[in-house]
Design brief:
By secondary structure, the chain is α/β, with parallel strands linked by helices. The chain is built from nine helices and eight strands. Strand 5 and strand 6 form a beta hairpin. The longest helix has 15 residues.
Length: 214
């Protein structure tokens, strides 16, 4: 099963992709997580990506496409994967289709998690991320057992730099301009499913199971 997750920043792509990866035992590939890991490791890619991420802008296509195409060629992707945060522009989607076509392959589904902008700002200000393992929580909707500490590794939780309200507004603008057109792109290919992302996390997951026929 080869699935792309679409949705505004904070729509719940990462939350659902993680559950899907566990349920179907396929890799969850998040370009945001890959960039954050590179920033933490102090790589050249991380330094370049940070310049854009801190401003709420997209990292240029040329820094993203090869990285994902290489990742999809790894052995653990042979039975499928969940792409979270990629593609994010029409050129990225076309590059992905071209790379898959080369090996006689194609995506099975694009799932759009639909959440209005007004819900997003509230969600992002309440999201907390683990400095160590990157796990994410929400102070109200998905709290940790011990306040401020990651359930998985007990490290400290922080508000991501790009989750500050001004940056979130910028990211939403970038989303509407550059990423939202992908909804029509995948609808045109007949593989799009829209899911209401305003309901509880478990209900959203149940809707995803339904559209994937599982
Ligand atoms: P990335 O990390 O991909 O950020 P994003 O797409 O903006 O998505 P988020 O991770 O912010 O949100 P999400 O939809 O995963 O929501 P989550 O599940 O955490 O990218 C960061 C940056 O990297 C980009 O801005 C860009 O600069 C760069 N980048 C990455 N990929 C790129 C690419 N392909 N090209 C160019 N640049 C790229 O949920 C949010 C919160 O809500 C959480 O606290 C969660 O607990 C809570 N929540 C989730 N579901 C629900 C629910 N149903 N009800 C209540 N609360 C919920």
């Amino acid at each position: 099963m080869k699935v792309v997750m679409l949705g505004a920043p904070g729509a719940g792509k990462g939350t659902q992709a993680k559950k899907m990866a566990e349920r179907w035992q396929i890799p969850h590939i998040s370009t945001g997580d890959i960039f954050r890991a590179n920033i933490k490791a102090g790589t050249e890619l991380g330094a370049k990506a940070k310049e854009y991420m801190d401003q709420g802008l997209l990292v240029p296509d040329e820094l993203v496409v090869d990285l994902v195409v290489d990742r999809l060629q790894q052995e653990d992707c042979k039975d499928g994967y969940i792409l979270d945060g990629f593609p994010r522009t029409i050129p990225q989607a076309e590059a992905l289709d071209a790379a898959l076509e080369k090996v006689n392959d194609k995506l099975d589904k694009a799932i759009n998690i639909d959440v209005p902008d007004e819900n997003i700002i509230n969600r992002m200000s309440g999201r907390r991320a683990c400095v160590q393992c990157g796990a994410t929580y929400h102070i109200t909707y998905n709290p940790t057992k011990v306040e401020g500490k990651c359930d998985a590794c007990n490290a400290d939780l922080i508000l991501r730099d790009d989750d500050k309200p001004e940056t979130v507004k910028k990211r939403l603008g970038v989303y509407h301009e550059q990423t939202q057109p992908l909804i029509d792109y995948y609808a045109g290919k007949g593989i799009l499913s829209n899911i209401d992302g305003t309901i509880g996390m478990d209900e959203v997951f149940h809707s995803i199971e339904k559209v994937l026929g599982a």
